[in-house]
Amino acid sequence: METIREKIAYLRGIIDGDPSLAEGRNAFLFGKVLEILESLAYEVEDLTRAQEELDEYLEEVDFDLAMLEDEMFMDEEDDCEHDDWDDESLVDVECPVCDYIVTFDEEFLFDEGVEIRCPRCDAIVFESADGEELDDLFTEDAVEDED
After folding, report:
1. Which residues of the chain have pLDDT under 70?
2. Pairwise CA distance, residues 103 & 125, whole Å
3. pLDDT at 49
4. Closest by alpha carbon to 102, among 94, 111, 113?
5. Are the beta carbons of 116 and 96 closer than 8 angstroms?
6. Predicted confidence (pLDDT) per residue in 115-144, tens digit
7. Chain centre distance of CA 108
8. How many whole angstroms separate alpha carbon 48 and alpha carbon 5?
9. Are residues 86 and 61 in the same domain?
10. Angle made by CA atoms 6, 9, 11, in degrees to the nearest 5
11. Domain extent for 81
12. 4-30 b/e (C-beta count within 10 Å ≥ 16 → b)
């Protein structure tokens, strides 16, 4: 495949080889047109090189972004892995809106003013009651279990 500069060189050869085009105003006009074409050819080559460099850079950024997304947005199985917590101290609650399983430390069950939201749909999956209400709940459950 011929490059633009090769095509321009071919045209220059035709103009230089034809004596009728090498005289007077025609020679001046063709000479200026060829100069402009050569300038444009160099600029196109520079733009092509710059575009190729940008494409390579964009591919690297895209790869880095994909790696970052993989680290930030783990799949559901990885969300539930907490190496520093005991499995016994975790509570799983199903979101009433999207059925996503939200896992949190059971200590939040006994704190006042706690509101746990689903990370997917932002619905409230657990809202702690006042201390007295929570005690009543456990007392009522314990009384029912004894009967």
Report:
1. 1, 22, 74-88, 129-147
2. 10
3. 94
4. 94
5. no
6. 888 888 888 888 876 555 445 544 444 444
7. 34
8. 14
9. no
10. 115
11. 76-146
12. eeeebeeebeebeeeeeeeeeeebeeb
